[in-house]
Amino acid sequence: MITLIEVLNFRCLRYIKQPLGPFHVLIGPNASGKTTFLDVISFLGSLVSEGLDAAVGERTKNFQDMVWMRNRNSLELAIEARIPSDRRAQLGKQPYDSVRYEVKVGNEHGETEILAEKVLLKKQRQFLIKKGLCFLIILSRRKQF
Fold it and tell me: Where's the Endonuclease GajA/Old nuclease/RecF-like AAA domain (predicted)?
């Protein structure tokens, strides 16, 4: 299960760090970033399975279209997920129960490339999620000055 999404300079999302539970409802006006928030997961899936060129090419011909306000050279994405118990068993006695994947994609040297990438194993803090609890993510448009 995905437990956190963190975004910097991806399309209309300047910065967002959103913990996730088992069920969410996205609420917000048109063009507030609801679809873009969901596209973070899709983009990362394409990046890992098909490669950077395919992930970017599915969305645009110009990488700058994917960068907040089109005035940055890079974007950063991170996702955290719980490691399923059958996979945790493969780690032996290690205390890790979640994984974090971070990637920085940019166009700093004339072509779109992965500028930084890392995978971290984490020991997640324990917390209780009540059954049937629904989380709301409310996105709003904010004026930039």
Answer: 1-45
| Inter-residue contact 117 to 8 (CB < 8 Å) | no
Question: Which tokens go with 144?
Answer: 């930039």
- Tokens matching residue 57: 């090419």
Global pTM reads 0.81
CATH of the domain at 52: 3.40.50.300
Which segments of the chain have a pLDDT < 50?
128-131, 144-145
- Dihedral angle sign, alpha carbons of residues 22, 23, 29, 34: positive
pLDDT tens digit string along 41-76?
A: 999 999 999 999 999 999 999 999 999 998 889 999
Can you list the alpha helix ranges (DSSP code H) found in the chain? 34-50, 52-57, 85-88
Distances in whole angstroms, Cα of residue 85 to Cα of each of 89, 91, 95, 100, 126: 6, 10, 12, 16, 15
Structural domains of the chain, count? 1
The span from the CA of 99 to the CA of 82, in Å, is 6
